[in-house]
Automatic annotation (TrEMBL):
Molecular function terms from GO: 3-beta-hydroxysteroid 3-dehydrogenase (NADP+) activity; 5-alpha-androstane-3-beta,17-beta-diol dehydrogenase (NADP+) activity; estradiol 17-beta-dehydrogenase [NAD(P)+] activity
Main localization (coarse): endoplasmic reticulum
Protein name: 3-keto-steroid reductase/17-beta-hydroxysteroid dehydrogenase 7
Subcellular location: Endoplasmic reticulum membrane
Keyword field: Endoplasmic reticulum, Glycoprotein, Lipid biosynthesis, Lipid metabolism, Membrane, NAD, NADP, Oxidoreductase, Steroid biosynthesis, Transmembrane, Transmembrane helix
UniProt EC number: 1.1.1.210, 1.1.1.270, 1.1.1.62
GO biological process entries: androgen metabolic process; brain development; cell differentiation; cholesterol biosynthetic process; embryonic organ development; embryonic skeletal system development; estrogen biosynthetic process
Reaction(s) catalysed by this chain's protein: a 3beta-hydroxysteroid + NADP(+) = a 3-oxosteroid + NADPH + H(+); 5alpha-cholest-8-en-3-one + NADPH + H(+) = 5alpha-cholest-8-en-3beta-ol + NADP(+); 17beta-estradiol + NADP(+) = estrone + NADPH + H(+); 4alpha-methyl-5alpha-cholest-8-en-3-one + NADPH + H(+) = 4alpha-methyl-5alpha-cholest-8-en-3beta-ol + NADP(+)
Membrane topology category: Single-pass membrane protein
């Protein structure tokens, strides 16, 4: 029986590279591309099938920053699938990233230069906005839209006979200092991306605590520092050109510089082969690349505690009730 894999954000970057690599690992997969843009998804599907004709590749149109779209896609998936073996929760945004030039130059001449480039800690701020659902866009896209997707797809994911696995794209930039339980959407801060990725880490831990007994397991991954559509907008092209030789050199001292989406998927593909019940729920799996270009997987204990994770999960459940009631009123 074919394994069924759902990948959000599958039409570019890490998501696209992951789809290609998964089909290299198992060319008979049923791979479902969950994308906002159907025409881009159709082009990706055609390219994947051209190289792997034995695979089954389907599309579901979903925008995780629009809850109506998430509900619609969930209904469609429940009609099509009896179960999902893997869900890669990869779609995400970092809107209008602004580089802190002062922090960049002070970091360049400090002992923390490698850490700064590896994690972007203190380097980037973003301008967030409110979605049609009345939520902060980064929070809804990176966290809450995926949370609702999981809630809706629970019948396809919870099977005691054989476990299903959630695999989240998190980040080394997930900082505890940027997250606050009293402001889970980070509406009062300037680093919503970092906050959202820390929220993803918390949510993964809470999912394990609440769903392992029902056969659903969750893990988080950091794909490393890459040049993708998301990161290209941070700096002008000529600055990237100047920085790339330095970044290549830094790879001999820090393994976080995976640089390409293909390299960045190393940990995501590694998890595809693991028994989820054997994994530590408090561990983050990091894609890493040596200075000579060899890929491998590292582990890192997450900087969080299970009580905070559970409180965050309860906050999401409360927000879910409120949002569902609002949508119901709107539709009537």
């Amino acid at each position: 029986m074919r394994k069924a894999v759902l990948v959000t954000g599958a039409s570019s970057g890490v998501g696209l590279a992951l789809c290609k690599r998964l089909l290299e690992e198992d060319h008979e997969l049923h791979l479902c591309l969950a994308c906002r843009n159907r025409s881009k998804a159709e082009a990706v599907r055609a390219a994947l099938l051209a190289s792997r004709p034995l695979a089954e590749v389907s599309i579901v149109q979903v925008d995780v920053s629009d809850l109506q779209s998430v509900f619609r896609a969930s209904r469609e998936l429940k009609q099509r699938f009896q179960r999902l073996d893997y869900v890669y929760l990869n779609a995400g945004i970092m809107p209008n990233p602004q580089l802190n030039i002062k922090a960049l130059f002070s970091g360049l001449f400090s002992r923390k230069v490698i850490h700064m480039f590896s994690t972007a800690e203190g380097l980037l701020t973003q301008e967030d906005k409110i979605t049609a659902d009345g939520l902060q866009e980064v929070f809804e896209t990176n966290v809450f839209g995926h949370f609702i997707l999981i809630q809706e797809l629970a019948p396809l994911l919870c099977h005691s006979d054989s476990p299903s696995q959630l695999i989240w794209t998190s980040s080394r930039n997930a900082r505890k200092s940027n997250f606050c339980l009293e402001d889970i959407q980070h509406s009062r801060g300037q680093e919503p991306y970092s906050s959202s990725k820390y929220a993803v880490d918390l949510l993964s831990v809470a999912v394990n605590r609440n769903f392992n007994s029902r056969g659903l397991y969750s893990s988080v991954v950091c794909p490393g520092t890459m040049v993708t559509n998301m990161t290209c907008g941070i700096l002008p092209p000529f600055v990237w050109t100047l920085l790339m030789p330095i970044i290549w050199l830094l790879r001999f001292f820090a393994n976080a510089f995976t640089l390409t989406p293909y390299n960045g998927t190393e940990a995501l593909v590694w998890l595809f082969h693991q028994k989820p019940e054997s994994l530590n729920p408090l561990t983050k799996y990091l894609s890493a690349t040596t200075g000579f270009g060899s890929n491998y997987v590292m582990t890192q204990k997450m900087d969080l505690d299970e009580d905070t994770a559970e409180k965050f999960y309860q906050s999401l459940l409360e927000l879910e009730k409120h949002v569902r009631a609002t949508i119901q009123k709107r539709n009537h």
